[in-house]
Write a structure and sequence with these properties.
Length: 171
């Protein structure tokens, strides 16, 4: 040791915990990879559970499963949150971000749909497909303090046959 700290080549093992103190003006910890990405492992009793990893040449960070190969979440250099596809874990095909004060949800790929689910059985209640169609799964469209514009074509008007207590029924 020296009066300014400890210089170690190799690894350091601490018996209980590692405490790092400092001020916000400089990084409290620095993980530097001299080649490729930098990675921090989170383990339980020696078993890897999650990794936090740099993007190997780009700003941002990604989170990998304990196997170190399956990406679950990414934060891009632009601040977009990207989620992996549970059926194809290494495909990042969703993004959530803010664009000019608009919260944007993107789903791209083969299906490109956004689904909203509720309940303990995760029942799908609404879906917006790649064509922009909105599908309500067995529900009702209820407007509170809003206005539903009147249909503008006769064919569309004829498709509706009832308006009872503010509920329009489609034939």
């Amino acid at each position: 040791t020296t009066s300014t700290g400890i210089d170690v080549t190799g690894s350091v093992t601490a018996d209980t915990s590692l405490n790092i103190e400092g001020t916000y003006q400089a990084p409290l910890a620095r993980f530097n990879s001299t080649s490729g990405f930098a990675r921090i492992a989170l383990q339980e009793n020696g078993v890897a559970r999650m990794y936090m990893q740099s993007l190997n040449g780009a700003d941002g960070v990604k989170f990998m499963d304990g196997d170190g190969t399956t990406e679950r979440l990414r934060i891009t250099s632009a601040g977009a949150l990207q989620l992996s596809d549970v059926n194809s874990p290494n495909d990042i095909n969703t993004a959530i971000y803010s664009n000019s004060d608009v919260l944007e949800f993107e789903a791209f790929g083969t299906n490109g749909a956004i689904a909203f689910s509720t309940g303990s059985g995760v029942d799908e209640r609404m879906r917006i497909d790649a064509s922009g169609n909105v599908d309500l799964a067995g529900g009702s469209l209820i407007l509170r303090n809003g206005t539903l514009a009147a249909p503008t074509t006769e064919a569309f008007k004829d498709a509706f046959f009832g308006n009872v207590n503010g509920v329009m029924t489609y034939a």
